[in-house]
């Protein structure tokens, strides 16, 4: 190999934790502070490394790391992005002391098995919304930048790096999210409708709440897909008649919201 390796760039960090010869073994490491602990958690989750969190009587945090039997690759990586935003799909190789010899290098990006971007010794082919930073090529960075993300961009992307005679494929699944707009309207004297519109993906759940109790007397329609690919749905709640005023809340659970948003409606009984 000419001064480079197709092993993922996170491998050197993992190698510090699990050096050669320790694959499949357990190793105890110390974490100096909670900030370092947070970064380590993210790293270990990304690398699919098993661990056990321990804390001694002095409050010092340590991890018991169970090293994998191989250096993990980026196969199966999922990237989540909101509609209309910019996203970077990672594809990097570790470059040793020498720069890459571009005469032996070819990088091809595929989307759903269709070629969308290419870089080789014959030139560079890209599109208006898909590109990568050519200045980073010498550093082994071929990450794909995708701007103004659309629902149609969702799917499997494959980065193929050929540094003759070696080849490495990286598969990344892009998952596009579009949050719903939520409204409550009074349909009839004793009926409320909660509508969620313009959301993606299709999976959604609507819950009605009043006085701290979850209400069951409601009907959730089947989500309908619009021309732009987003979905709309409504849930109708039958309200038992009562005296005075009462607040009803509609809570919507959707993958685009880490916390389910909730809106309230004050129904006046007269």
From TrEMBL:
Domain spans labelled Ig-like: 68-161, 165-264
- Origin: domain of life: Eukaryota
Which keywords describe this protein according to UniProt?
Answer: Immunoglobulin domain
Task: Output this protein's name.
Answer: Ig-like domain-containing protein
